[in-house]
Amino acid sequence: MEKIKAVITGVHGYVPEYKLTNKELEEIVDTNDEWITTRTGIKERRILKGDNQGTSVMAIEAVKGLLEKTGVAPEEIDLIICATVTPDMLFPATANIIANGVGAVNAFGFDLEAACSGFIFALTTGSQFIETGKYKKVIVVGADKMSSIVDYTDRTTCILFGDGAAAVLLEPTSGPNGIIDAILRSDGSGEEFLHMKAGGSRKPPSYETIAAKEHYVYQEGSAVFKFAVTKMADVAAEVAEKNNLTAETIDWLVPHQANKRIIDATARRVGIPPEKVMMNIHKYGNTTNATIPLLLWEYEPQLKTGSNLLLAAFGGGFTWGSLYIKWGYNSVK
Question: Domain segments of the chain: what residues?
């Protein structure tokens, strides 16, 4: 009997309506559209506005759309994994809030935090639950409200991030398509270059930490850029070589949308031409865990059964990884 694999059978995304453009950022901090576009490729990003609006608000909309699109009842879902660095609260898990919000009363759930690599880590984790043969329908969500942890007086970070969510449905298959292989890596020595200084058990919230703006993203851009270019490109090339994939046989590179220069470097390392590289950074910026599933959602009409997809990401801490997927269905255009 052939080994059971997990295959993606549906994808859906959600982004807030409000667009924060580079022009608007020019009025907030000392920057300009040309500087932002040249260095990052970002033109605008979506921001979730309103009181009491957490990451789960976007994730619930993405999962509702996914269930409707695939014709799956919420009661059929076995597991929800939410990859996020901006949970609604420390507990309960945002995955459980999502399950309640969509009516997935039979599902258990948990959050997974691996910075910008989280969706790839969560997708690999979800696939292994399917491979046991015990679980039939697993939803993996990538969602972040990055605007909640961005300092809009810091011109080096506020230009980068946006809000969004997207989800995929995993189901079992014994056929040739599905999640084929993954290589995941982490290096905790990268902590000093990209982190949030306060809010955890090491440095709980206080008047002092709030006054010092220690609850926002802290990043040493040049160091992160150097590591990201090298690690994300190398791991993508490693997965490709391990699975005998070439520039000709890879249909799509699906890279984390952190910076256009990092995306371009990864494509060059694997030898993939620009027309095979999924990209929407210009519209959404870096939505952290949502970037890769949002790409799959937007490019879904161009995907075909058996398409070879190479996913790659790099995140703070540091984390990085790459995933090889054979797409499972012909999308309806």
Answer: 5-178, 180-279+298-326
